[in-house]
Amino acid sequence: MHRKVLDDAGFAGARYAACGYALGCTFKPTWMDVPPMIYSGNPLVMTPGMVFFVHIMIPDASTGLVAGVGQTFAIADGAPEVFSDLPVELYCR
User: Fold this and answer.
1) d(CA 37, CA 74)
2) How far apart are CA 85 and CA 64, in angstroms?
3) What is the CA radius of gyration of the chain?
4) Average pLDDT over residues 54-67
5) For 32-57, how does the pLDDT look when each residue is reduced to its tens digit (9 = 90+)?
6) Order of strands across the sheet with 32-37?
7) Distances (CA, A) of 32 to 41, 51, 62, 82
8) In 3D, which of 64, 54, 90, 67 has the Cα closest to residue 15?
9) What is the DSSP string of 79-92?
10) Number of other CB atoms surrounding residue 19 within 10 Å
11) Burial code of 20-34, b = ≥16 C-beta within 10 A, e = fewer?
12) Cα–Cα distance measured from residue 36 to residue 46, given in angstroms and rounded to the nearest whole number
């Protein structure tokens, strides 16, 4: 779904292949529990108690800048536990 939406919007050449990663009890040099990364074809099964940061990142190779949005959540038996109260709507002017 991540790839299709970005590709259909014209960002196929700019998007990253992965759209998130696990978070855990790791420290310097990274906060990421890599692997696992979230990408198409990954055999990982997300189970209750696992914590992930899911994101959409779009880099601009000409400037070296990256735009991104994301959300951290824990897998639960029902709906995931979201760790932010911020809205996820995208506002455009």
Assistant:
1) 15
2) 30
3) 15
4) 85
5) 656 677 888 888 888 898 888 888 88
6) 32-37, 20-23, 51-60, 65-74, 81-82
7) 20, 10, 27, 18
8) 67
9) S-EES--S--PPP-
10) 20
11) bbbbeeeeeeeeebe
12) 10
- How far apart are alpha carbons 54 and 75 in whole angstroms? 12
Cα distance between the two ends of the chain: 26
Q: In degrees, to the nearest 5, what angle opens at C-alpha 13 toward C-alphas 37 and 70?
A: 40
Single-letter amino acid, residue 1: M
Q: Whole-angstrom Cα distance, residue 37 to residue 23?
A: 10
Which two structure tokens, joined as six digits, stand for 67? Answer: 């735009």
pTM of the model: 0.70
Read out DSSP for 12-36?
Answer: TTTS-S--EEEE-S--TT-SEEEEE
Check if the beta carbon of residue 33 is closer than 8 Å to that of residue 46: no
